[in-house]
């Protein structure tokens, strides 16, 4: 053992140095590569954003196209890249600049002011035609070959095969296709611009050239509604309509967007609101401002595409309980064209705090759906408080309803709103009403409440007339607690029907109580709440979307009429 050679101290240090060096390389090299890749990615993103900002196209990034897609410039198959949500162009990242130079996007207004109002040629784009589209010449399916092929007009959405495309078709006038009665043609806006320069305002004469059925549609979408589904809907509507008709209300307030109605013939415009009941109320408030400004003849009729959680107003108007992309956007536009005009009562809710009758201005709200005090308002208040803290966690309609269920179950145990009848006084049209031992009072303007429950008609052998939203009457009901609310929603119980009235007055004598107007809750101290009729709103009712409750309620009403 003594004769064995021991390694010199310098050799051991040298081996340890190699080990440390290789360890540092194995740790730092991946870090350096990751940093370099992220730096390059950020540079590419800045470069893309610069192109997007300067471009006339409405470019949007996508990590994965939903169908086989080919670059409109290099004709190569692409999995990710950019697409224009106005004209539908799809390009690879490296072809963005070339696409900007080679292809023109949709024209909001025509550059050639001398062009006739009804004379506009097709605007053809090659490739990436919609699935199940057919050639206008040979009537065969387009886009079946695995390459960049066939053409689509970005205005009328007609498609044609490469081999069927002729010079006569290239120069043919575009009739704007199926939705010509909803589209504002670029030539119309050009003519309007010229008329305003000449100080002329006879828009009806100009619109007469577009036909009697022309009823242009304005899209007001809330991009934050429906798990951010509104952002995708904005792009789909821009492709089918003139982009100038499509607005994101989070960027352009409704009052500004609705000024487009003043450039259209009187009583001709329609509006499609894509969002929850809160977004609809925001738009209707903006329409009321138009009345104040003396623009009553330009007020549009309003349709709803429900993207919120409850969607009771849209359900009442026949537009369903929620939209999740189950029908294509083109079918939504067809439904709007088939809808009928009706009126919706709007009510003023005035809340005057006790002891400040002359010193503090009363709070005022506008009610479209319902007002309530009690357990359902408490659930809405708790939900609203937690959503304000973490809005990203409340982007799912199913999750939101689960949270409501949690707070409803909690209130069943705690009963924070018990003995409401001892804390409030209720007057209907000036007459005081004696109340039983209730926990909540709900004042209804529409037929649905609580995410799809017909509260006033109820169930069982008792026949009650259908609640109407245009008769100037409010329906007032009471509930015995959160568990009673749950029973009503699953059709195991009826509410306590208090009565109908043109004016409702509620006096909260003591303590703090939760209140809500159309899903906007707050905690309220002693006060007087007065609900009176304010105005009417012009809405669109779609009879094609009926729930089982609608059918059963309609049949019940027919039975009552036959009995009479």
TrEMBL record:
The chain crosses the membrane at residues 20-39. It comes from the Eukaryota. It catalyses: a 1,2-diacyl-sn-glycerol + ATP = a 1,2-diacyl-sn-glycero-3-phosphate + ADP + H(+); 1,2-di-(9Z-octadecenoyl)-sn-glycerol + ATP = 1,2-di-(9Z-octadecenoyl)-sn-glycero-3-phosphate + ADP + H(+). Residues 56-105, 121-174 form the Phorbol-ester/DAG-type domain. InterPro entries: ATP-NAD_kinase_N, C1-like_sf, DGK, Diacylglycerol_kin_accessory, Diacylglycerol_kinase_cat_dom, NAD/diacylglycerol_kinase_sf, PKC_DAG/PE. SUPFAM superfamilies: Cysteine-rich domain, NAD kinase/diacylglycerol kinase-like. GO terms for molecular function: kinase activity. Pfam families: C1_1, DAGK_acc, DAGK_cat. Keywords: ATP-binding, Kinase, Lipid metabolism, Membrane, Metal-binding, Nucleotide-binding, Repeat, Transferase, Transmembrane, Transmembrane helix, Zinc. Residues 212-353 form the DAGKc domain. Its EC number is 2.7.1.107. Pathway: Lipid metabolism; glycerolipid metabolism. Belongs to the eukaryotic diacylglycerol kinase family. This is Diacylglycerol kinase. The gene is DGKE.
